[in-house]
Amino acid sequence: MLLTVVAPAVLVAAVIAALVLAFYDGGSSGQAASPPGQLASPVTPSAVDGDPAPQRVVLARAGQVAVVLPVARRQVTAVLFHAVAEPGAITMTPSSAVPHAVAADDGGEPGTSGVDVGAPAGATVYSPVDGVVTAVVPHRIAGRPEGLEIIITPSDVPDAAVRVSHIEPGPDGIVPQVGTSVGAGRTVIGRVRDLSRVATFDIARYTNDAGNNVQVDLLRQPTGPGN
Prior knowledge:
Blueprint: H1 8-26, E1 58-62, E2 65-68, E3 79-82, E4 93-94, E5 101-102, E6 114-118, E7 124-126, E8 131-141, E9 144-154, E10 160-168, E11 181-182, E12 188-192, E13 213-220
Parallel strand pairs: 3-5
Antiparallel strand pairs: 1-2, 1-4, 3-6, 6-13, 7-12, 8-9, 8-11, 9-10, 10-12, 10-13
């Protein structure tokens, strides 16, 4: 077995060189701009620990309905708007304050009635709107229950419904009950469910992970479980 001993002077020089390289690699001025639709990818697992309540950052609007980021901004890996293939889908206007991409529907036209907000599995999910919970049902993928869908009627807009999916109960196991009032960016409604083993997501094209996300759809009332 060959044992190499590093002389003290050489070791000190190596440490100094490593510190200099780390400084330049970590400096924000030297980082390349993120591609469109990407906010912070990848998000390290430590970003989930002790995640703070998100700032009230408006993600999109539709008339009187303001949809805010449902997770803390530092946990967002990407934002992808898309069409919702349902007759009651309502088009949202994305906010320029949040970098995002827009996917084309089956007809090649861009759609913005739904939005996937990428975030690591386990991240705390907050209500994206002010309103009242009107339904809590299983979310199904290929007929199998995979987490929850929570449907919220926005304040002062009784003919609209905001459907939040790809989530599961939080660490305390508490799920909002029907009739509960929720505040945008303030009320915890669950956490991001890891669906990477059962589904693939278009948003993964914009992230460096499996594409786990919170899906938020805006629909006309009445509404029910998604597909």
